[in-house]
What we know:
The protein is α+β, with helices and mostly antiparallel strands. It has helices at residues 279-287, 289-300, 336-344, 361-377, 383-392, 399-404, 422-439, 441-454, 462-472, 479-486; strands at 42-43, 61-68, 71-73, 90-101, 105-111, 116-122, 125-126, 128-132, 135-139, 149-158, 162-164, 170-176, 179-183, 203-212, 216-219, 222-229, 234-245, 252-255, 258-263, 269-274, 308-313, 329-331, 352-354, 458-460. The chain is built from ten helices and 24 strands. The chain is globular and about 65 Å long. Zinc ion binds at residues 323, 341, 345, 363-364, 367.
Amino acid sequence: MSRSARLAPTVAPSLRTLTVALSLTLTLGLTACSGTGGVHATSGSAGVGDPYFPKSGNGGYDVTHYDLTPAYTPDTSDTSETRDSATAPTLTASATVTARATTPLSTFDLDFQGMKVNSLTVDGKKASWTRSGQELKVRPSAALRKGRTFRTTVHYSGTPETITDPDGSDEGWRPTADGALALGEPTGSMAWFPGNDHPSDKATYDITITVPKGLQAFSNGELRSETTTGTARATTYSWHTPQPMATYLATVAIGHYDITRTTTRNGLPVYVAVDPQEAAASRKVLARLPEIMEWEEYNFGPYPFSSTGAIVDRGGDAGYALETQNRPFFPGAPDTATLVHELAHQWYGDSVTPKTWRDMWLNEGFATYAEWLWAEDHDGDTAQQTFDALYRGTYFDDKADDDAVWAFPPATPTSAAHISDSPVYERGAMVLHKIRRTVGDARFYDIIQGWAATHRHGNADTADFTAYVEKMAPGKDFTEIWKDWLYGHGKPARP
Ligand code: TRP
Ligand code: ZN
């Protein structure tokens, strides 16, 4: 199985210079008495204290819903069509962010990188704003009381940015040959909509995309309507996401696609969009999607969302697959293991979402272990064989990759540049296998299903997980697994 198919592209170690030392910033708001209405209001902080992405997210409020209306005109300079405006790809959009103040607020921040803000209101009243890096600081005309639900509407336009991660992968808004692609992990959503761009704040979404007639627009959730206005030469696609979603899982795919809308045997809607160039190569594996869903429900418990599917774009359109909610994204036809991996994320990552980016192994360790379990159940290597090959150092094609598994503990990646490295994936899966061996198969499946059920549509961290495992297996000793395998540096002495 090829890791590179779904992993961010490897960058030279010398580029991996961002260290944890950068990550300690002020997470408390500065106190400022607004004097309005007797509210002693503060400034919401410009981050939520993520140890790896300190500016991600914002303090002082909780988003409940995003209403996004992007209208996109791809670059048409290479077609015969003429246009009086510039041919650079442009996005014109409004975003209405419904949130509840968790503290009295005189100002608050949204994460928003690039684009031009044209107007901004809070509950319909003009608000002032300033911008600095990814922080869009909003000052409502009057301070907001704690507990108050408020709506911020931002109108913006421009050419959205592609953001390069500390690990060298690209996300954000990516123009493609026939449209565009929005991918968000870990900090890409702020390139195309203003919000609380951190996994800890999940919300429901309405994403209403307008594209030139003839193009299609795919997104998360369920398609509510598709309307083409005769005169406007544009089509509007309305997608609704009724279950909470982290910002990094929101997606938009614009282009020419072969689209199918089917249902699984349980009546779950399946939306699949495939770039015609990838259709032939994708057909066989995508036909197995319902079977994989059934196998995953059997092993992980009830599917947490109201639709499923996949988006397959061209190989060059991104360097990795991504577990975008409801329908994972693939750069080119996926193999079965990668489809199993990304669909497993719907339980582990999308429904049970990490509290911070440090807890990434709760996503990737689980999704990788899902691949091992699939292989074991489908005439491939047993999970034990995979574990042994990794421990022996004969799993990857070259020694450097085999050694890299021991570079750092899964629970504490060295820095933001390393959250997609093999200790998070393979060694994370090894931790799960160690737990399985300690408790036996029956209890192990109770644990992974119970974990998904307990934190369904929520957030959890590594400490929540170890406490949950201990609670579910009284009398078992996990001391060595936690100390050596999860938090320990170097290769554990015993397999
Ligand atoms: N989460 C993706 C997967 O399914 C990989 C990935 C894409 C990723 N972009 C990332 C991991 C950014 C970390 C950071 O494995
Ligand atoms: Zn993954």
